[in-house]
Amino acid sequence: MPRTPTRPAGRAVVAVVAAAAGLLGAVTAPSGAPPPSAPPHRTAPAAAVAGNTATVFYWTRTKDWAAYSLHYAPDGGAWTTVPGVAMERACTDWVRATVPLGTATGLRATFNDGAGTWDNNGGRNYALGTGNVTVKDGAVAHSDPCAGAPPPDSSAKATVYYSTESLGWPTVNIHYQPAGGSWTSVPGAGMEPVCAGWWKREVDLGTAGSLKAAFNNGNGVWDNNGGADYTIGAGVSTVRRNTVTPQATDPCAATPPDTRAPTAPGRVTATADGVSVLVAWDPATDDRGVTKYQVTRTGGAGGTTVTDVGSTVLSDTGLAERTAYTYTVRAVDAAGNVSAASAPATVTTGERPAGPAPGRPLGTDPRKDPIYFVLTARFHDGDPSNNRGGSQHARSGNAAHDDPMFRGDFKGLIQRLDYIKGLGFSAVWITPVVLNRSDYDYHGYHGWDFHRVDPRLESAGASYQDLIDAAHAKGMKIYQDVVYNHSSRWGAKGLFTPTVYGVRDSQWSWYYDEEQPGFAYDGLTVDPKSGKSYYNGDLWSTAEPTGNTCLNWGKPTGGRSPEGYTLYNCQWPSPTSGMFPKGLYHQCWIGNWEGEDARSCWLHEDLADFDTERPAVQNYLIGAYNKYIDMGVDGFRVDTAVHIPRTTWNRRFLPAIQERVAQRHGADAARNFFVFGEVAAFVNDKWNRGSVNHSAQFYTWKERKEYSADDSAAALEMYAYEQQRGTGDQPTSSNAFLAGNTYHAPDSGRFSGMHVIDMRMHMNFGDAQNAFSNGKDSDDSYHDATYNVVYVDSHDYGPNKSSERYAGGTDAWAENMSLMWTFRGIPTLYYGSEIEFRKGRKIDCGPSCPLAETGRAYFGDHLAGSVTASGFSKVSAASGAVATTLQQPLVKHLQRLNEIRRAVPALQTGQYSTEGVSGGMAFKRRYTSGTTDSFALVTVSGGATFTGVPNGTYTDAVSGDVRTVSDGRLSVAAPGKGNLRVYVLNGPGRVGAAGPYLR
Q1: Radius of gyration of the chain (CA)
Q2: What are phi and psi of 623, to 5 degrees?
Q3: 533 close to 527: Cβ distance less than 8 angstroms
Q4: Order of strands across the sheet with 131-136?
Q5: 529 burial class (0-12, 13-18, 19+ CB within 10 angstroms)?
Q6: 104: buried, middle or exposed (CB in 10 Å: 19+, 13-18, 0-12)?
Q7: Where are the alpha helices (DSSP H) in 178-265?
Q8: Interhelix angle for 654-665 vs 615-631, to 10°?
Q9: For residue 356, how far is the Cα from the chain centroid?
Q10: Residues 520, 535: Cα–Cα separation, whole Å
Q11: What's the confidence (pLDDT) of residue 538?
């Protein structure tokens, strides 16, 4: 925020107000007090008489002004200049001023606070005599009200404590102005640290009763209470979180011990699924905060067990069949106080499900694993029997192409894991696997039953568990796309499913089906009566149902569908119709995509927005995704992460993920379980239109301060606090950067648990140089940019928010890949980009055009035949169309890039620097751990010179060229567009064979 050179913005200057007479205490000047430039009552005073004075006492309890002034005129004399003379403290509740009267036998007087508020006796002024005169609530008398009282301290003091608990300021200054006085010079007076997070300064107020203040860190960062400044009275005051507490206790005094236990958790539920039980409960309350819960289980042969959890949900697995278990929950605070036990919840388990045991994640550093991203339903079809077209099959044009939206499946993906491995990728990011329900849901982002894998993706011998296990057997990871923000418009099974929308009339009979007893929607099973696998039968009625909550149910809206059919209220989902319960779903549409409502309102009518700050929703989602953690997935890609407050991620979902992985698979697996969020900032600048709350890097940090225990209130408090802090007062990190040529251990103490997709590089990948420059510019604002997921285009957008798949040309693709595979971050490729699949085609046009004509076309035709990988980037055998695919120039380029990256640790996990580096896309990287010390000098496309580097022997991993550096300098000629040089100190030598770009 811009500031003047002399003092921060927002300073209020005492105004001299001279207006017509007004009511007692009104903000007007008294009668007889025109502007100072024309002094009132220009009557010449008589000659002065020594000793003739009046001591005027004024009662303060009624006014409680910050300062008091006496504006007066001796009888027959001139008025003082506004605001008059300052009055001093006399004794409790009284101020006084002694004024000379000369030969006058009295005076006329008014009183004011020096800032425009007056007591002018209702416009009549006060007529006072000589000697001791009192004015109390309009009554004039003659006495000394302070006779016999101890003399006051003529210099009042304010002891100010300022909290920096969340600011991290190394020093604090208080810039202040006593009431009626002048501001200190910027930056003000230094405050002293007195205890953790608190600074103190005692301010001499003189005769003033209060001061105005602002605080700063000495380096231009201010807290001026949003421009209003802080008003602080005499005595001890604290300033914390924009709130002044007068007459406060010393915040650094010893804190009394916490002896109060939390309340008992409420509404404990236990639900069995086979031999697993999901236990959930409402949060307990505590005067200082609950830190964990103890869940006690009794029943079965195992006796009593107690499990500690940090969230309000526990998935208890591996139990005995057909056995009753009882659960109680206690809350624990930081002092170890334990609540009473909750009411018990009892449940009986069912049969042990058939199928393989849960797997185990590979648990290695995710930066070592390049990612291949597939839309599972569009990648490769291994089982045509689970293909489904949905309600839009004909309308979309897919039927004419014999191309059902659900076409690819897990069986097809398993069959082509060797293709992906042969490209050199060791991680596969797949679209959401949960059972979807919408008109066009092949992509997976319209979840309905979050506890169930969509049957349209599974086959006999090719379940989701089979896919995870098959990938792990090949040394490959599975990253599952997950959605916490919304369900489909049909609700969420097990949480809330709306039972009635709309009206089924003759126009809509094709859409709304009759409910069939015994038929349950699963996306796969075909209803024998209608012949449809998609099903809307529980969402229609010919009469308004009992208990309807939807407003104006069944009344025509006045609009028509594209087919020309009448549209009815409540026919389609809406957050404002009363259709969805307030306790589970938000009730508004997003109006400002960079506003607070972007986190708490609906994106689209198909996406019913969860109220993720509610315990019931949190428990539902945590319990659902625990299932997939137990199956052994290696990480979560988080869809629409920006549409959930960071406080909710940091308090609830991210700790629950870590806790579950550690519980099931151990601490190493938890440390390397890779969570990366989609914080969709589709702009080319560092911060998303200046809004920190909507910027990708923001989500990689822990909270900087404590907020309300209520998650909804905390979300609003955090939003306002961080928006006020702005982009210039956000945490920074050196975790991605070398210190000169030295690798340093990264500081993970402030990490939230979520890494992110590098949206800024993505937006700027129309040109590799732009992507590189923009990436570097943002890296200090991420917790650790070496974990950023970097891609050119995706299932949503191309660079610069293009709606088409990238079409910059093969050479540009090669250059982009060379940068991604050597610069910091994790290189990621959208399926088919290795052959420029569907380049320039519109990525998604919904049901208005065939999928075959879009960027989400079916890829399996290019994978037909067989393929066997003998290692990463190594194909030992291939036949058919897939063999042709593997001969394409970008495929060869990718294979070698993956070989080089895998052979040079600095390119995987190293920090980087451009210090002492000249050239366009040139940098140095280093990783040091134990006996590993990998140092590489990289230049992409253009030449570069590196100075101040360690002396020694460097070998280019691309060409095999060997250089000996003895003066800290190495110069590299331009290798050509898409080519690169990777000179490694004591390196492995040339890696792989020359290809179309790397040579």
Answers
A1: 36
A2: -65, -40
A3: yes
A4: 88-91, 94-100, 53-59, 131-136, 139-141
A5: exposed
A6: buried
A7: none
A8: 30
A9: 37
A10: 9
A11: 57
